[in-house]
Design brief:
By secondary structure, the chain is α+β, with helices and mostly antiparallel strands. It has a single domain, classed as Immunoglobulin-like (Sandwich), CATH 2.60.40. The chain contains two helices and eight strands, in the order ααββββββββ. The strands form two sheets. A four-stranded antiparallel sheet has the order 1-2-3-6. The protein has a four-stranded antiparallel sheet with strand order 5-4-7-8, with no helix packed on it. A hairpin with a 2-residue loop joins strand 7 and strand 8. The radius of gyration is 20 Å and the shape is globular.
Length: 140
């Protein structure tokens, strides 16, 4: 009886600890929600075949990139990336989210007032890693 009571006590402690630490965060319902919602709006996008779309969003001061899979499912490699171009032409503040995801990669953000950005993303299409970058764009 003591062994059963001890096992039940340990189980209760483990379950209580799991409840206090929380679980996996809920995924966003759209690229805008992934960037934080509010005043973000889409200013550009690029399709990666029929598998994903790279979304560039802006809220008046910050650019945000999310690569959203068309048909979420089994985790596969997905990339969202962005960088700010400096006056000397180099890119700084490069940020990316590159991992195996079921729905989307990102958000990645950069503030680039008065500067160009380079944004892009990638996804595995039929076993082939496919990536796209804009080059300097959305300057100003």
């Amino acid at each position: 009886m003591n062994k059963l009571r001890n096992a039940l006590t340990i189980t209760a402690v483990v379950l209580a600890a799991a409840a206090l630490t929380g679980g996996t965060a809920e995924a966003a319902s759209s690229p805008i929600a992934a960037c934080g919602g509010g005043s973000y709006h889409e200013i550009d996008s690029h399709k990666l075949g029929n598998v994903a779309t790279i979304h560039l969003l802006y809220n008046g001061s910050t650019n945000c990139v999310v690569t959203w899979r068309t048909n979420p499912g089994t985790a596969t490699r997905v990339l969202a990336a962005i960088a700010r171009q400096e006056s000397d032409g180099s890119f700084r503040d490069y940020k990316n989210d590159d991992d195996r995801f079921t729905t989307y990669a990102g958000p990645v953000t950069v503030s680039a007032a008065g500067r160009c950005i380079d944004w892009g993303g990638g996804v595995t299409i039929s076993g082939v890693w496919t990536v796209w970058y804009s080059g300097p764009s959305h300057c100003g």
